[in-house]
Amino acid sequence: MILVLAGGVGGAKLAQGLASQLPPEELLIVVNTGDDFIHLGLHISPDVDTVMYWLAGLNDRIRGWGLAGETWNFMTALGRLGDPTWFRLGDSDLATHVVRTQRLACSETLSEVTRHLSRQLGIAHHVAPMSDDSVRTIIHTTDGTLAFQDYFVRLRCAPTVTAVSFDGIEKAAPSPAFIAAMADPHLRTIVICPSNPLLSIDPILSIPGVLQWLRQRRVPAVAVSPIVGGQAIKGPAAKILRELGRDVSVLGIAEHYRGLIDGLVIDAIDEITAPAIEGLGLSVTVTNTVMANLDDQKALASVALALAAQIADGAHA
Which of 23, 158, 264, 317 has the smallest set of CB atoms within 10 Å of its CB? Predict the structure, then answer.
């Protein structure tokens, strides 16, 4: 069993690469749900949907999110009626949210609904939300406190961030699949995707019990840096890290995950930083981490798994 923690486009890309390398029974992809929100009466799970669409091969590779070949008649009609159109829901994508909302209203859990949607999309690998409980990422800024999607989509990440918190996290429990993976005696590797560490991975790690489990685990854990050459490949990770006074570099990522991982995969452009990361007690692999196509995704997945295997072999030597 390989446990993957993912969120956003970077997480979806690496998850697809890993799924191409591993049979369904050996992979569990746990996805951030701190971005979830209710919009137009619908339960939207942006990160879960992004991962599902990539695994199903239905994703829009140009935008990174949403479905390929999407149309926007619903949004056009919505705007004509005077309702807000800042959060774009494509006509085909809309069906996913309608089905999710209906099934949740019939007392299914988010895990059950995600499993159903995955099956219907032809996804063999197991995709699970981080929790079936409501957790909402809150962005504290110099312009006030904002719900995540207000900051991320409506305001396009413009306000200066002063803190990030997760509403409801104290009462949240890991999803059943997540709990099972943490207790699985056959678990052999944990992979943290090149997702935004503050917005996509920290919500997962902040669920009560998860950090303690990670610190006490007996299997290798590796992360792929979302920062390349001091910049984020996609999204506001570098901006937020900078505004919070963090080091916007692969070394900063290593420090963020210090004590939780054994190894870090970094891009060749950051190779000079490898000795400093090793000085933190982490193993480092240098490779191309920019996933421009499926071949890149597969190659990066193989490198991450090889680093974990190398760490495991060293521990057993």
Answer: 317
Residue partners of 101: CB distance under 8 A and separation at least 6: 41, 42, 43
Q: Which pLDDT value is given to residue 315?
A: 62
C-alpha radius of gyration, the chain, whole number: 19
d(CA 177, CA 244): 33
- Look over the chain and give the mean of its residue pLDDT values, rounded to a whole number: 95
> What DSSP element (H or E) covers 77?
helix 73-80
What pLDDT score was predicted for residue 317?
45
Cβ–Cβ < 8 Å for 146, 139: yes
DSSP code, position 16: H
Go through 279-305 and write b for each residue having 16 or more CB atoms within 10 A of its CB, e for each that does not.
Answer: eeebbbbbbebebeeeebbbbbbebbb
Distance CA 187, CA 178 (A): 12
CA distance 200 to 72: 27
CA gap 258, 275 in Å, rounded: 15
Give the tens place of pLDDT for each residue, 245-304: 999 999 999 999 999 999 999 999 999 999 999 999 999 999 999 999 999 999 999 999
Q: Report the SS3 class of residue 200.
A: helix
Instruction: Give tens-digit pLDDT for 209-243.
Output: 999 999 999 899 999 999 999 998 888 999 999 99
0.90 exceeded by pTM = yes
Task: Write down the number of H helices and E strands in the chain.
Answer: 13, 14
